[in-house]
Amino acid sequence: MSNYLKLAGFGVLTIFFMIAASYARDLAYQFHAGILMCVAGGLFLYTLRNTDEPAVVVDRSAYLDSVVRAGVIATAFWGVTGFLVGTFIAFQLAFPGLNFDWSEGLANFGRLRPLHTSAVIFAFGGNALIATSFYVVQRTSAARLWGGNLAWFVFWGYQLFIVLAATGYLLGGTQSKEYAEPEWYIDLWLTVVWLAYLAVFLGTIVRRKERHIYVANWFYLAFIVTVALLHVVNNLTIPVSIWGSKSVIVWPGVQDAMVQWWYGHNAVGFFLTAGFLGMMYYFIPKQAGRPVYSYKLSIIHFWALIFLYIWAGPHHLHYTALPDWASTLGMVFSIVLWMPSWGGMINGLMTLSGAWDKLRTDPVLRMLVISVGFYGMSTFEGPVMSIRAVNALSHYTDWTIGHVHSGALGWNGMITFGCLYFLTPVLWKRERLYSLSLVSWHFWLATIGIVLYAASMWVTGIMEGLMWREVDANGFLVWSFADTVAAKLPMYVMRGAGGVLYLFGSLVMCYNLWMTVRRAPAKEASLNVAVPAE
C-alpha cells in the first residue's frame, strides 16, 4: 500500500515540476525545476520497479554503516571539488585574465566564490558531520540508526540540496546573504532534510542501550538543533512568485544585517565548531587509545561554548548602522569565548597524555592533533579581531580571509582528513590503511599549504589596512585603492601556491583511501554488528 501512495506522490511532483519548468520566470528556477522533475520521475520509476516485489530482509541488529560509507565518499568528493574551485578563484584574483570572457555570468569570480564557500563548508564539512555523527551515535549508543531508511533520505536529500545550491550560484540564483545564498525553495528543502536528520539522530539517542549520553553526542545535537534555528530565522522570506526564485526577506535594513551575522557567526560557531568538536571528542581518544583527559572539562566546555557563542555575531558589524551597544556586546562575548575554546583545545591535546610517542609513528593522530592546534590559534585570533580597535584595521581586508582559512583548512579540514583515515579501514573492514607514508605526505603538503595561505593573507591584510589609513601632512590619502591591489600581487600568488599544495594533498588522500578499499588486507570478523558502546 505504501508503494502505491509513493507512486501517487512522485507522479504528482513530476507533473508539478514539469509545469514549474514551463512557467519559470528565471533560468535558475527553470533549471532546478528540470532537475527536480528528473529526480521525482526517477523515483517514480524506481518505486514502480519495486512494487509488489518481495521485501528485502534487513538485519536490524547490525549498525547501519552503508550510509556512513556513502558519507565518506561524498565528503572526499566534495572536498576535492571545493578545494579545486577555491584554488582556481585564488589565481583569478592574482591574474584577472582567468576571468575569461566566455565565462562571464557563469564561471567568473563572482559566481564561483559562493560556489567555493558552500562546497567547502556545506558539501565537504556538512557531509563529514553527517557521516561521523551517524557513526559516533551508533557506537556510543550501541544502537542502530533510528528511522529505517530515513538516514538514506537525509544523505540523498542533502546531496540534492548541494546540487541545487551549486548550480543556482552559477546561474545567478542567489539571495546574496553570506553562507545563506540559496533561494527560498532550496531553503525549504534543506529544512525538511535537516528535520529528518534531527529525528534520526535524536531517535537513535532515545533508543540507546548505553545509559550515558557521551559528550560528543551533545556537541553534535547542539550543532543540529542550533543550525536548524539559525537557518529558519535567517531565511524567512516571501517569494515574489511560486514560479520564480526571487524572494523578499522579512527583516528590514539593519535588522536584516543583525540577523544575518547572528546567523553567519553562529554558522561558524555551531556548524564549523560545535559539530567538529563532536568529532574531536570521539576520534582523538579512539586513535590515541586514551580516554578524554578531563570529562568534567568537556562538559564545562560544552555548556560555556553553547551559551556564549550565540551572542558573538554583532562583532561583524563594528562601525556600521548597528548601535554601538550591540556590537560591543558581541565583542565582549567574543573575548570571553577565548576561555572555553582554549579549555576544549587543552582537553583535546592533553588526551594524548601517556601517548605522545605515537605522534612519531602515527600520521593520522598527528593530523588530528594539529587540527586542534589550529582550533586554538583560530579561537585566539577571532576574539582579538573582534576588538573594535583591531577591527578598524582588519575589517574588509585579507586578514579576515587568512583567519577564516587557517580555521577552515587547519581545524575543519585536518580533523576531517583524520576522521576519513580512521573510518575507511573500519567501514570497509580492512586491517589498516594502504599506506601510512602517503598519510605523512598528505600531512606535510596540507600543513605547508595552510602556512603559505594564511601567512600570505595575514601579511597582505595588515599591509592593506595600513595603506588604506595612511595620510600625508595635508590629511589626504597617500595610496589609492588600485595601489593596494597592485601591492598584493606577490602574496596572492603565494596564496594560490598554498592552495595547490592543499589540493594536491587531498588528491593523495583520495588515492590512499581508494587503495585501502581495493588492496589493503581484509578483516575476517564483522565490524558492524551492534556491540556494547565503544
UniProtKB/TrEMBL annotation:
CDD domains: cbb3_Oxidase_I (cd01661). The chain crosses the membrane at residues 7-24, 30-48, 68-95, 115-137, 149-172, 184-206, 218-242, 262-283, 295-312, 332-352, 364-389, 409-428, 440-459, 492-514. GO terms for biological process: electron transport coupled proton transport; oxidative phosphorylation; respiratory electron transport chain. Heme b 1; low-spin binds at H116, H405. The keyword Transport applies. Binds 2 heme groups per subunit, denoted as high- and low-spin. NCBIfam families: ccoN (TIGR00780). Belongs to the heme-copper respiratory oxidase family. This is cytochrome-c oxidase. It comes from Tritonibacter horizontis.
